[in-house]
Amino acid sequence: MAEPQHKRQKTDKKYELLYHPRIPGRGEYVRLALEATGTQFVDVANQEEGGYAKVQAVFDPKSVGDEHGNPPAFAPPILKVHGEGKEGKDLVISQTSNILLYLGSKLGLIGSQEHELYIVNEIALTALDLSDGAHDTHHPLASVKFYEDQKEAALENSKNFREVRIPKFFSYFERVLKSNEAEGKGRHLVGSKLTYADTTLWQVLDGVKFAFPKEVDARQDDYPLLLGTFYGGLKQEKWLAEYLESDRRLKYSMGVFRHYPELDRQ
Ligand SMILES: N[C@@H](CCC(=O)N[C@@H](CS)C(=O)NCC(=O)O)C(=O)O
Question: Which of 58, 79, 107 corresponds to the end of one domain?
Fold first, then answer.
């Protein structure tokens, strides 16, 4: 007898995450959606011998697409889904928010009513804007330049990020949690169930806390729902606590979230 779809998804590794090796980066938003639902996947660059070459081939500047009819990707993260593409071939999709939209729908992370999907997506996109802002603090001029060659601009950008952007984003997320408090109890942004808005925002908060520990500490009491109930509550959920302890959780280093003490509150 054929296994039910949800069971099959959890055991046959139909998903491959194609991302840079050894850093959480934007790949972490995808990993968390998969981890939260107990979905098995292959983290190709970290788990397969020669895996990064396979990842690079998908966004190679000379690529004109693959044998499954997928176009080339611009940049990782990229998700490969076996058997879900054109005529049962493999589907290859990119753009973090697009992957989250796909996985969220497949894995039940989009709330329980149809309209909630668009709220979930709106909040996840806003969290990813904050993630981009955190990246730009250390690379405000150009991603290809060394941090050391754009340090002056990084100091200025970080000051604005800490003093203007962090409070603006944190206040917004605090108010979203407040607006959903009757259902979400401060633990969920939309409805009463975990969504990819929750997993994505959690990862952005964790990254911002890593990059700007003094700034976030100083603001801890201003956002009790966000930094207390939501961030702390989710961190204690079994799946996340176990994942954070596992060797699948990669350490922050040279990715989106970097800790340069000089960019933090002094
Ligand atoms: N908007 C894209 C941005 C993708 C992106 O910037 N990926 C990084 C790694 S996290 C990269 O390798 N970029 C190469 C490039 O932009 O040239 C997304 O969210 O997926």
Answer: 107
Polymer length in residues for the chain: 266
Taking only the tens place, the pLDDT of each residue in 84-124 is 999 999 999 999 999 999 999 999 999 999 999 999 999 99
184 lines ligand 1 (CB under 6 A): no
C-alpha span between 228 and 138 (Å, rounded): 27
> Which residues are CB-contacts of 95 (< 8 A; sequence separation ≥ 6)?
74
Residue 1's pLDDT band (cuts 50, 70, 90): very low
Half-sphere exposure of 105 (CA within 13 A, CB side): 10
Tell me: do 136 and 86 sit in the same domain.
Answer: no
Does 8 score more than 70 pLDDT?
A: no
State how far the Cα of 215 lies from the Cα of 266, in Å rounded to an integer: 9
Q: Whose CA is nearest to atom 17 of ligand 1?
A: 75
Phi, psi values for residue 79, rounded to 5°: -120, 130
